[in-house]
Amino acid sequence: MITLEIDGRTVQARPGQTILEAARAAGIRIPTLCYLEGLSPRGSCRLCLVEVANWNGKLVPACATPAEEGMRVVTGSQRLKELRRMVLELLFAERNHICSICVSNGHCELQDLACELGMDAVRFPYRFPGLSLDASHEKFVYDPNRCVLCGRCVRACSEVEGAMTWGFAGRGVNTLVEPDLGGPWGESETCTGCGKCVQACPVGALAERGVATAEQEKRPQVLAEVTERRPRV
Amino acid sequence: MKRIKIPVTRIEGHGLITLRLGEDGRVKEAKFHVTEARGFERFCRGRTLWEMPALTARICGICPVSHLLCSAKAGDAILAVRVPRAADKLRRLMNLGQFVQSHALSFFHLSSPDLLLGWDYDPARRNVLGLAEEKPELALDGIRLRAYGQRVIEALGGRRIHPAWAVPGGVRAPLSEEARDALAAGLPEALRIAQDAISLYESHLDAWQEEIATFGDFPSLFMALVAPDGTWEHYSGRIRFVDAERNVVADGLDPARYGEYIAEKTEGWSYLKFPYYKEAGYPEGLYRVGPLARLNCCDRMGTPLADEALARFRALAEGKAVTSSFHYHYARLIEILAALERIERHLDDPDLFSPRVRAEAGINELEGVGAHEAPRGTLLHHYRVDEDGVIRWANLIVSTGHNNLAMNRTVAQIAQHFLTGREITEGLLNRLEGGIRAYDPCLSCSVHAVGRLPLRVELYGPRGELISWRER
Predict the structure, then answer these.
(1) How far is A211 from chain B (nearest CA, A)?
(2) Which of A143, A148, A179, B136 is most exposed, with the fewest beta carbons within 10 Å of its own?
(3) Tell me, what's the ipTM?
């Protein structure tokens, strides 16, 4: 076992466990968004950044950094709070996150994080991109206006369902999640209609068809449940 | 050049009134301008049908319920479903709560300070707080009555403002028995307050004669939804037009085909469109909607206390249409009573607890119209969607729009009567505001606008020179 320190507490981790897994096992909360149990870690949202005091305060994503012997991790410094808040503000400014009319209002990980981290205003100018909603699928709706590019849908589709329908297209701020090689989701030849992407999506970007504002509740834990029950080969 | 600034307050939204004098020094022309544009119909495009109730409800914080229900009904039309019986009754119940809260706000909070403290009372204290000092019981009654209406909305939608509860095909959840019991317990007090307010209004009729005769007293058409048997209606029914004699001009019109009998004119000086009755042309096709129109159009209220009040209301005009817009206040109070009596009936209905409240369906029509009576008058939501249920086009005709021509005519009548000389006096300004306020307009709704909206009055000479202006 590895012994490390998180927020002054001595914590044990198995070799290969990440800082996030060790912290969660010890009941220490670190905010996450792109991380989802049951999927591979990506480290792209940067909300789980922590400081490693004995690495000169280096910032590392807790979800993707293996715990190491003697590591001294800080999860809630003032610097980290400010950084996480800024990351959130950038996410809100990037697309059109209008909570009041969103299907996920009240059941949204982005909204919950904004409350938890005290994001009461956005200091960056909103970009207001004019993105089109795709309601062509018979069961689901994809609204890129609400997408945070966490990639949970992409990983759920490839790692758990194995359909590999979703992928990233474009670069930087203009990146879009797209089915197949672009085009209407309803015409996708690979999509099995399983809905794992919808359950994995932390926001209102992927939703069940026909749900009205604030009605979309999700069960992201099904991804971990499915993978745990699956026989290992 | 002398300028005096005045605002029009205690209405939902803001506008500008301009008065133009003729060579004889009399008011020749008066215009009521709505000076904000918002573009709601444009940014509904690209959103799904299922989001529209909550999206359009955000047009207004006073009447979100009206937009919510009307939008859900346009959605019903596009799904081509019949809403389950329980959902229909639950939606009706919420709309009745909306009538009570919105009408109570209009009468007690916004208008009663003028009516009861006087048109020339100190403007700094001519508000609900001043009323609370002078007539504390009345002010508290008003607050309690409005709160009752809001409790009805909250019991159904989970919150008082912007409940995202009605959806295309029905509603999200039924009423609970506990909530029903709480509403039933509050009803006797609400009924008492509504009846007291009607008595109070009726006892002041003599004192208000000058305002009654000048606050938009002119013959016109009236439009409202009425039930198939001619009873007062607030949620469904068909469109009826009556004239000043209460002759039925048109009846049984399908609200979904409003374009066949209503046209909308735009004028360069207002962002608010001017709907008119097509057959009579513009501007002769002026018609009024809202409480006054609903009472003029219906044959009966359909509940005992409200029908007694309707008989007294009818007696004002010897059975013809009541044509003074001042009596919007009277009609509003009678409608509060009618709404409360209907709430009482609904609360005994076991259907309200039924779990079968939502018809699920796909996109079965590409176009749908929702028609509805909002407290302020007939509301129309008209959507076109693509095969996936994404909004491609939307048109919203709100009650304040229907009343636009009538409000213009009203400010002209008030100015002609109360303007003396070339100064906009406090008394004139307040009566101009009061004349507009009688319609309980929602200017934020009418142009789907947002923000702080003061009212301003400008007086122009015969050659278009600005003589004075006032803003509060």
Answers:
(1) 6
(2) B136
(3) 0.90
